[in-house]
Amino acid sequence: MQNLPIGIQTFRKLIDGNYLYVDKTEHIYKLLTRGSVYFLSRPRRFGKSLLISTLNEIFEGEKELFKGLWIYKSDYAWEKHPVVRIDFSKEKAESKDDLKGFILYQLKSIAEKYGISLTRDRYYEAFDELLTQLSQINKVVVLIDEYDKPIIDNIENKELAVELREVLKGFYAIIKACDEHIRFVFLTGVSKFSKAGVFSGLNNLEDISMDAGYSSLLGITAWELTIFFKEYIDWFARTEDVSNAELVEKITYWYDGFCFSKSCAKVFNPFSALLLFKKLDFGNYWFETATPSFLVKLIKEKNFDIKKMQDLEVREENFSTYEIDDLSLVPILFQTGYLTIKGYDNEFMTYMLGYPNFEVENSFQYALLRSYSYTETNGYLVSLIRVLRNDDFEAFFDTLRIFFANIPYDLQIDKEKYYQTVFYLIFSLIGLKVGAEIKTNKGRIDAVIIDKDIYIFEFKFNGDKDNALNQIKEKKYFERYQGTGKAIYLFGVEFADRNVGEWVVEKMQV
Q1: Is pLDDT of 445 > 60?
Q2: What confidence tens digit (pLDDT) does each residue in 132-146 have?
Q3: Is the pLDDT of residue 97 over 90?
Q4: Domain that holds residue 43
């Protein structure tokens, strides 16, 4: 079996080390032959840097590195070009002068590689000078990785983020101004700021982030998984004592589902898939590489309805690019990979968004619950499931109270909605954990857990437990679950003084 390229972002290293490479060169060939100035937004750890490295080797004419790959047998000319490649993930800019200095240093290093001396000391003038001089060799290729990282690193410091944006704007504007010297441009990043902002001087940029023709340029398709990882799937299935089909179904549930266009050509998260086959164990690998603390904070600040994240319908303008002083939550959640396209309605031209897979939904909801409840949650959620299955309802409600005990008393918010959100997250995570159906009413916090038995809850804020129980009966919430052969428990619960209060339970006859 070929080695798994975990953490490898250099194409030459990957090929020389006999690492597994999912052949994307047919997609890359389309890029090279159908356009010249591109932008691609994708979530972190999706292979953007490896793509930049691959393009670098192609434009330096290193054909033999691609032996055995699709592009090797194509009619591509393999013409050699000077390459200006800058990776902004290398810089942690804490001021605009830091960023200017980093850019100038990178430009001078590239110039030195090609035996050129730069005379200009302003970063944008030096960029112009470098492109002009390199074009005497051949038309220039410009590859920019993580174009937005200086801004994203400082997104909570709006004043500094704006200053850094202006520096980058001046830098990227040179690309269009030097169009006559350039063969190809490719920029990648996580976010997609508006063309009126960072890219205001680069209005010839073709954004392929939601282009169906490039939706599987990064990530692993179902076909690619079964072809390129066949030996690993065979091996893993034997260790799990399951069929290949059963294993692939589980891998799909955990890591597939990312979709970046109307066509919904789904792809697996490559980072999680690689670690899965290395460890032969399912885990939240992609999520653990970066906690989305800023996103969680923004969700709370904007009082965003978390329930919508499972079933959000938006028009295309909701994906419209945003600016630093107007951070729209939906495009950020989509671009960072916490939401993805689940479907498209041609009649109304609307996208259906939701969590891409189990890993993202489970991990993100845990992060949200920790933030909303100010409580470390994992052990308590497991306890809730165990005691519920043992019909220990007293322990269930005692554990449930823990999630509300640490919430600050002086929150300046709609407290009822805040507590409803906590309830929603708890019951959603229970449903995910037990792998069983769970339903929550969008208007209230009554919830249904379908597991060993069926548990129907009605919570009354500053209300009476008996009234809550009677509401379940009067509205016959239980009717759809009768005839299943499972016991049905009805819970009427009071919520008072910022926590779960008294409760009453009634078991229905099967």
Answers
A1: no
A2: 999 999 999 999 999
A3: yes
A4: 11-214
* Tokens matching residue 297: 């904070």
Measured distance CA(238)–CA(23) in Å, rounded: 26
Does 310 fall in a domain?
Answer: yes
Question: What DSSP assignment string belongs to 291-353?
Answer: --HHHHHHHHHTT--GGGGGSEEEEGGGGS-BBTTB--HHHHHHHTTSSEEEEEETTTTEEEE
- Cβ atoms of residues 29 and 49 within 8 Å: no
DSSP string computed for 69-138: SGGGGS--------EEEEEGGG---SSHHHHHHHHHHHHHHHHHHTT------SHHHHHHHHHHHHTTTS
Distance CA(108)–CA(113), nearest Å, equals: 9
> Which of 358, 389, 412 finishes a domain?
358
Is 201 in the same domain as 91? Answer: yes
50 neighbors 14 (Cβ within 8 angstroms) = yes
**DSSP run (H or E) holding 15:** helix 11-16
Percent of the chain topping pLDDT 70:
95
Residues 227 and 201 in one domain: no
**How many folded domains does the chain comprise?**
4
Amino acid type, 169: K
Q: Does 33 lie in the same domain as 120?
A: yes
Residue 444: pLDDT over 60: no
Give CA–CA dist 199/205, Å, rounded: 8
**Residues 504/405, Cβ–Cβ less than 8 Å:** no
In a domain, 5, yes or no: no
Q: What is the pLDDT of residues 120-172, one digit of tens each?
A: 999 999 999 999 999 999 999 999 999 989 988 898 898 999 999 999 999 99
| Euclidean distance between CA atoms 207 and 167, whole angstroms | 21
